[in-house]
Amino acid sequence: MGSTGRPGCRAPGRRPAAVRAGAGALAGALLVAVAGCAGADAEGGPPALTWYINNQNQEALAERCSQEADGYTIETSLLPASNAAQREQLLRRLAANDRSIDVLSLDPPFMAEFANAGFLREFTEEEAAELSEGVLDGPLEQSLFDGAMYIAPFYGNTQLLWYRRSVAQAAGLDPAAGPVTWDQLIEAAEQTGTTVAVQGLRNESMTVWVNALVESSGGTILADGQEGAPADEVRAAIDSEAGAAAAELISRIATSPAAPPALSTAGEESSRAAFQADDGGFMVNWPYVWAAFAAAVESGSVPADFLDDVGWTRYPRVDPGTPSATPLGGIGLGVGAFSEHPDLAVEAVRCLRSEQSQTEYMLAAGDPAASAAVYDDPAVREAFPMWEAIREGLVDAAPRPITPFYGDVTGSVQQSFHPPAALSPETTPARTAALIEGVLSNDRLL
Question: How confident is the model at residue 325 (pLDDT cuts 50, 70, 90)?
Fold first, then answer.
């Protein structure tokens, strides 16, 4: 498929100059592309839809769906690497009524903000019913805002507990035998001189961790039933026993000898490096690490038998008697509100997140599918021997707060809970709640 030459568009495999130059280069030239990509191609052929993708592996799906399509083709435009930069670029374009955005890959926590602003085409009831069929509970829940679907679940993501079998055995702990608590992990790591690798970096991974701990304790960050509430009416619910439990646990890890090096700057890759180190013991992380482990074995950076020593199980519990609420991530596919071909864009979404597409993408990119049927595929089960734990995690997962003001909410949580700040079960939850409500009421700044 050749490039049409329209600003901001590309055929699969070609990266736009603005993206190559970095997100900062987009700001000055952004409005140049607003007239955009939608419409027929340069030769007067079928309309060329543009899909703003967040991963280059999605290009293959665009190519196949273009070949199978009747009446359109799909070109791709690669978004920046970080989810925050992706949000910024898409918001700027859509705020300018950019007609070039036909389909977009969107991080679900940002969905309510885009929907509330009128930047996404709402799927009809019939379309939503079709796109919901067979979708696991977690990915489906985070695709809805005020009872309507604005992004079609494409892939989900959930964290597992990964452990070194030899370390667990030395500590007398058998994670495969039943639910494991955070307290048990910390005690086992301290006993064996190993680490519990977590993500303490002050970015979205921090909110993922806090939300999972709060939800696993039976609480929520925001009060229920406020999806469409105005900013100054949103009420925080984190000043609770569940919030106190989260603060206490994060504080305990941060001050424990089981804390990984540089906990306060540790993201997913830093956690993986800590787990692969000689004193690695336990880790919470996304399923992509399995393929990363295999690559590390192949490169010789870890011992040849490393994979044999890696086990996995469900995300840890906070309370022994309460099942964990597993972290939830993923991507949904939305249709831009200003697309000149919205009906064709919906057709494209059907193909791009079909069972075949989700299967192909999970095998290529390592990101778990949102649809349950994909986990019945023998190739998926072979590539992901932990497929049952992933599927279970996506059923029981707890979305981060669904609110148009998520950016302020997550910023408040990150600021208040980020180690090594003084975390206290007595003060941190109240401080977080006050900051969330103060920022949303324009009384405080982050």
Answer: very high
